[in-house]
């Protein structure tokens, strides 16, 4: 048999085998294999997010003519000072905005309504003034003005700090918002969830935290810090404060730090779960979660107010002791709250709470 006849014979046998086993030439067979998803967030889910809307803040902000997805001028219509220099860690135009996780599926008993056009003060008490630096020599004057807190057209809450170092009026050099929820935790056990994109820059200190409803004594009645970062360190500080703030009570202020290198470029989910049987002060447990991972646990301190009395705070502070005296550059710094709600139980139920309690690290004294 000639080599041509042998070749035809072998080729015919190969074609039969190929058709029987559905083998494709080259790399086509590999392409039909299922590929794992590139990005997922099991088990937690997050609310849908579109791109930042191409609209200015709501009516009443005519002085703030910038679009939401770019920094505003240094002050009202840029009257004072020069255009802000590039801000390390704050450049929304160059940042990507990945989809945030979807809403938690556990039973929600309260959810903040971020309704476009509605006044923020409908659900939130907007604190005002500098209050002697708020105990930290902070620079900002808090306002109830819509340029410092507003809802976007796609249903987000923006807490905006504006630095305008050359403004002749000291009360307008640094303005921001400090919002306190009119809703309390109201239950003896539950989960508080917020999905936040945080501004990270020198002299900027955003926070999501809890204080008892007024009047209260600080820190004796307690403070719970769920998200806070400062000076662009891209580190979340989970904290618990109670007792007195002096040398005798040095061990009554605990914290854990979690590196979040992209917390200013994506929505991050923060949860605080509390379990306080019958609301007994000084009893019960707290667990802090970031993106579904337990990052700190602590017993509820003796002498603190019942958890059901606590309210939610969102604010962006500027300068002061915590920021080591750093002064923010001219421009705007937005804390974007994508979602905020209270749920009756954690995802996975209270059995998961027990598992996470065993896994979570204790807060460190500091």
Automatic annotation (TrEMBL):
One of its GO terms (biological process) is carbohydrate metabolic process. It comes from Knufia fluminis. Residues 70-89 have a biased composition (Pro residues). Residues 108-348 form the GH16 domain. Residues 1-18 have a biased composition (Basic and acidic residues). This is GH16 domain-containing protein. Residues 25-53 have a biased composition (Low complexity). It comes from the Eukaryota. Residues 1-106, 122-141 are annotated as: Disordered. It holds the Pfam family GH16_XgeA. One of its GO terms (molecular function) is hydrolase activity, hydrolyzing O-glycosyl compounds.
